Amino acid sequence: METQALNEAYSDIMAEYADDTREWKHGNDLYYKSTTGACIRNLASPQYPCLWKYEGKGSLENEDPKKQIDCHYASTIISHIAYVMHDMGIEHEVGMRIWYGSMDYLKNTEMDFQACRQ
Predict the structure, then answer these.
(1) Distance from the CA of 22 to the CA of which of 5, 66, 82, 94 falls in 20 to 30 A?
(2) In whole angstroms, what is the distance from residue 43 CA to residue 35 CA?
(3) What is the phi/psi pair of residue 12, to 5°?
(4) What pLDDT score does 46 carry?
């Protein structure tokens, strides 16, 4: 699950760097009529609003340990770090180079969060 979550996180991060809005929200254009600012994933505040979670599609607090956590929901663990880097003043171009440059490590099919941290 962590390998899939990392792939999803990198996809979200690269999409954010390609987007000029710097909202750090994904899928908010799908819910444009919503007055709550709803989106599928909020990289700035992963806990709110997240329709993925509200629709019952994923949760980090899974009661059944045999069920895997949804990789799309778990991806915000990593993609939120990209937002924090941006929020702490890492320039756009520098952040993009850091994340893009580290994508080579994703070629390892056994990549997990611990390895990503290193």
Answers:
(1) 5
(2) 19
(3) -65, -40
(4) 82
Amino acid found at 105: Y
Q: Hunting for tokens 């806990």 — which residue is that? A: 47
101 backbone dihedrals φ, ψ, rounded to 5°: -65, -25
| Residue 8 structure tokens | 């999803």
Alpha-carbon distance of 51 to 31, in angstroms, equals 10
Q: Are 73 and 43 in contact (CB under 8 A)?
A: no
End-to-end CA distance of the chain: 19
42: β partners: 25
Alpha-carbon span 26 to 23, nearest angstrom: 8
Smallest CA-to-CA distance from 79 within 7, 1, 4, 10 is with 10
What's the pLDDT score for residue 86?
A: 94
Name the residue with tokens 């909202």.
23
| Rounded CA separation 102/52 (Å) | 27
Tell which residue, 12, 37, 10, has the closest CA to residue 26. 12
Q: What's the pTM value of the predicted model, to 2 decimals?
A: 0.78
